[in-house]
Amino acid sequence: MLLHSCVRRARRRGSAEKAREFNLRGAFGKWRSAGGALRTETLHAMKMHRPSAKAVFTDEGRHPFAVNAMVEIPMGTVTLMGDLQIPRDAAGLVLFAHGSGSSRHSPRNQYVARVLRESGNGTLLFDLLTRDEEAEDNYTAALRFDIRFLAERLVAATLCMASHAEAQQLPIGYFGASTGGAAALVAAAELGTGVKAVVSRGGRPDLAGDALPLVKAPTILIVGGHDTEVLRLNEEAYAQLQCEKELAVVPGATHLFEEAGAIEKVARLAAAWFQQHFGPHR
After folding, report:
1. Which phi and psi (to 5°) does residue 61 adopt?
2. How far is CA 65 from CA 52, 57, 103, in A?
3. How many alpha carbons fall within 13 Å on the CB side of residue 232?
4. Nearest to 216 by CA among 243, 237, 238, 182
5. CATH of the domain at 36
6. Which of 119, 171, 223, 244 could be stapled to 218 by a disulfide with Cβ–Cβ 3.0 to 4.6 Å?
């Protein structure tokens, strides 16, 4: 299988890198034995497009990037696009799962990702859908609520990172928005200890269903205080989580956190959560 070709390269690396790789592979194996499947989306080798051989600095100029690349994540007959940025001496890597009708270019997720990089974490923002799938979903709205489908793609992207030289030793975390929050929780439940922390922003964790009590990763649910219905759904989902957890309500914020200072509060909460569970950057 092409899945094996993605991980075979790691076997030739050092023991620490092998341990990181085998940790995720073991979690994946347990998931598959429990009935999980990636449908037709087998994992291929990731193609890297490095813009420069020189060190590239973050917007803030504090951490030179070890990786600053557009990536292609081939999965079966489709290819997903992403932006991978890892500061040198990063503490961890956060994969973003965007919400319905959005993409890796979401300005709110882009802002949170920048704050996470400022705090010493790598980020992977990638499109959960291809352009054709997105166009179809705009008419049918079928894929945006297919949480299993979205979670499978997040799992596959995570396993690809396990074979990347700069990413494979880093703790993995998820940041999910809207329906992406549910996908992040399902993926975290499937990968067990392979995921170290989850942040949900204005998410729909209720859509994770039976996966909620299976999540092992410490999870924070961030909800706007004026997002009344979503807040109720988060409270119900919070009660089902059996992991370390927190429910953070941003006063005065609505679903998209467009109010002054709201998304900044989300970013600070997310950065603190990942720092707590990843540890300081190296």
Report:
1. 75, 15
2. 11, 6, 23
3. 2
4. 243
5. 3.40.50.1820
6. 244
Average pLDDT estimate for 249-259: 93
Per-residue model confidence (pLDDT) at position 101: 57
With a CB cutoff of 8 Å and minimum separation 6, the contacts of 22 are none
Q: Are 94 and 114 in contact (CB under 8 A)?
A: no
In the predicted structure, residue 45 carries a pLDDT above the cut 70: no
Q: What is the pLDDT of residue 133?
A: 78
Torsion of CA 97, 103, 104, 109, to 10 degrees: -70
Rounded Cα distance, 86 and 169, in Å: 12
Output the pLDDT for position 136. Answer: 73
The residue range of the domain holding 134 is 2-278
Average confidence (pLDDT) over 225-235: 97
pTM: 0.79
Phi and psi torsions of 24, nearest 5°: -70, -35
pLDDT category at 267 given cuts 50, 70, 90 is very high
Q: Which two tokens stand for residue 143?
A: 């894929």
Contact 250, 231 (CB under 8 A): no
- Cβ neighbour number for residue 255 with a 10 Å cutoff: 17
* pLDDT at site 33: 46
Counting the structural domains of the chain, the total is 1
